[in-house]
Design goal:
With 116 residues, the chain is mainly β. Helices cover 0% and strands 54% of the residues.
Amino acid sequence: QVQLVESGGGLVQPGGSLTLSCAASGSIFRFYRLGWYRQAPGKQREMVATVTSGGITNYAISVKGRFTISRDNAKKMVYLQMNSLKPEDTAVYYCKADNGPPGTYWGQGTQVTVSS
């Protein structure tokens, strides 16, 4: 039994910042890979950022240099710090935890809207 709950989304002006949080609960204390994905209306869900248990990070080209992913294993949390936000960042952001087959879990999503 694993649950992922995202928070921190909202409305922000272009150039602003937001930090998303994802809290994990259940019987699993650590995951091999944690990540953030996003889906805008009419578009496919895309990877934004991931971080492995060893601290290796990967970012989508569109967010590299602006977003930072981090994790706190003791608190079972993963974060996404988003700076210099653009209107094209508007999407529902989802937290994903992957512990290998069959342990892949998704959060419910949190809306991020970048608009003036």
